[in-house]
Amino acid sequence: MNRNSVSIAAVILLAALIVVAIVSTVPSHDDTETLYQVSTIDALLAGVYEGSHTIAEVKQHGDLGLGTLDALDGEMIVVDGTVYQVKYDGAVVVVPDTMTTPFVAVTWFDPDITREIAGPVNLTDLQTQLDSTYPSPNLFYAIRIDGVFSSVTTRSVPAQEKPYPPLVEVVKNQSVFEYADMQGTIVGFWSPAFVEGINVPGYHFHVISDDRTKGGHLLDCSIDRAVVQIDTTGGFFLDIPREGDFHAVDFGAGRGDELAQVER
Questions:
Q1: CATH topology for the 28-263 domain
Q2: How far apart (Å, rounded) are the C-alpha atoms in residues 44 and 167?
Q3: Of 41, 63, 97, 177, which is the most buried if we count CB atoms within 10 A?
Q4: pTM listed for this prediction
C-alpha cells in the first residue's frame, strides 16, 4: 500500500470514529436515566415557535414528557409512548409522527419511587408533598400521577403566525378549561435551579384524562386520591435546533419574570 493510500484510509477511519462518537452521545432507548430536551425555555419565551424536530425523532428518546407543537399550536403530553395535542379549543388528538416541535422534554419512564396520596390535595399541597420525597434538589425527576380529581384547571394556547410574539403575550389569549370529577394522568418534571433559562426550574406539569378527551397545561387541581411515581433522572441532553430563529435569539436578557407569568 503506498503513502497516499495509507493517508486516505486514515482519514476514512478518523471520520468513521467521529461519526460513532457523535451518535453515541445522543441518548438511546437503553439510557433510561436521561432527560432529552429540544431547544430551551428561554427560546420559547422569546418566540421561537418553529418546529425543529419531528415527533418521530422525539419518540426515539422517551415515552413520557411534555412540550408544544410547531407554531405553538397547543399543549403536548407524552404518556405511554403516545403523543397527544390539546388544542386551543380543548380538543385532544393523537399527534402524527410527521409533525414537528419547537420545544419538548421526554424520558424513558422507569420509576424509582412510588407513593399514594389521599386528598383533598391541591396543586400547591401536592408540590409540598413531593418536595419531601426527593433525595436531592439538584437532580431531574420525571413525575407521573394517576388519580381521581374533583377539579382540574388547564390551559392551551392558539397557533401563532409570524412574526411570532413572545410567549408572555400569547398567554394573554389562552383558553382556560375547568373540569370536574376527572380521572387522568399528570405528567411532568422537577428541574433543579441551575437549569434556569434552559428548562423550567421547579415543577412543570401537563395533564390528560383517561378517556383522552380533556387536558392541557396544568394550572391547578384538587386530588381525591392518586398514585405518584417518580423517576430519578441524573442525565440531561439538550438538542439545539440546527437552524432557524433559535440562532438569532439574544439569551443575555433574563426572562425569569416572563416565565413566572407564563406558568401561572
A1: 60s Ribosomal Protein L30; Chain: A; (3.30.1330)
A2: 7
A3: 41
A4: 0.87
